[in-house]
Write a structure and sequence with these properties.
By secondary structure, this protein is mainly alpha-helical. It has nine helices and four strands, in the order H-H-H-E-E-H-H-H-H-E-H-H-E. The strands form two sheets. Strands 1-2 form a two-stranded antiparallel sheet. Strands 3-4 form a two-stranded parallel ribbon.
């Protein structure tokens, strides 16, 4: 947090879950393809694919009803309440339902004042935590239905069926390996560390950085190249083609790293 600093609410407002976020499946969803149209109404829609299917939601509702009606469960009431509390708290604490006279209607405005919480970037990734609660709820539901094997099996298999997606990769492993090999051939044998500027004007900066990182793994030598969506303020190496040897060596000096054997390529 000291290095990256905090993020203002305006920087993360687009990544607070909306009600429709919980109905937006992955772009390649087979059974829920019509719901992918909801992406048109969401900012940064790729961060809002939080719909895990009906099975986890149904299991959470079942769990809530069983606790309310005091029906027997295969786990203690405290454990069931903890599962519901985990999902419910993350849902309520991060949900943005709109605004009233310009005032945002969400709890995140208050929670963002908690020390360290303003370092979070993609708040919609709270969905990963909710998947844990949803999975536990499904497991409890399957166990509760053990006297009815057909229903138990259907509930156990439904999440797999619901999340069947066709998402062809935009790039193959062979293509990535070939680009990394090109970087490796450009690095001299005496290099103990390197920075790759890229030699393809059409390649986006992040691709140049990732190619160099892959080459670094293959060669086993460090690189100053790197890519992240959460760079430190004032990071000077974001655009590799704008970096000069003087900039790279200045960063090495600032970081207290030796410049011996450092190669600026090409």
């Amino acid at each position: 947090h000291d290095e990256l600093g905090g993020r203002p609410l305006s920087a993360i407002a687009g990544m607070l879950p909306r009600p429709t976020s919980y109905l937006l499946p992955s772009p390649g969803a087979v059974f829920y393809q019509p719901l992918t149209r909801l992406a048109a109404n969401l900012p940064m829609a790729w961060e809002h694919t939080m719909f895990a299917g009906l099975a986890p939601l149904a299991a959470l509702v079942f769990l809530a009803l069983a606790l309310w009606r005091r029906r027997p469960l295969p786990v203690s009431g405290g454990a069931a309440a903890a599962v519901l509390g985990l999902w419910g708290f993350t849902f309520v604490a991060t949900l943005r339902v709109g605004s009233w006279h310009g005032v945002p209607l969400d709890l995140w405005c208050l929670l963002n004042a908690v020390p360290g919480l303003d370092s979070l970037r993609a708040v919609t990734r709270v969905g990963l935590v909710q998947l844990l609660a949803g999975g536990l709820a499904v497991g409890i539901g399957v166990t509760a239905l053990r006297a009815r094997p057909g229903l138990a099996l259907a509930l156990a298999l439904l999440p797999t069926v619901e999340n069947w997606s066709r998402c062809p990769a935009g790039v193959t492993a062979a293509e990535v390996g070939a680009r990394a090999a090109h970087v490796e051939r450009a690095i001299g044998p005496g290099c103990r560390a390197f920075f790759w500027r890229g030699d393809d004007p059409a390649a986006p900066p992040y691709a140049v950085q990732l190619d160099a990182m892959w080459a670094s793994f293959d060669l086993g030598i460090p690189t100053l190249n790197g890519y992240s969506g959460n760079e430190p303020p004032g990071w000077p190496l974001s655009d590799p083609r704008a970096v000069t040897p003087e900039m790279a060596r200045a960063w090495l000096e600032r970081a207290g790293l030796p410049a011996d054997g450092f190669c600026f390529v090409p």
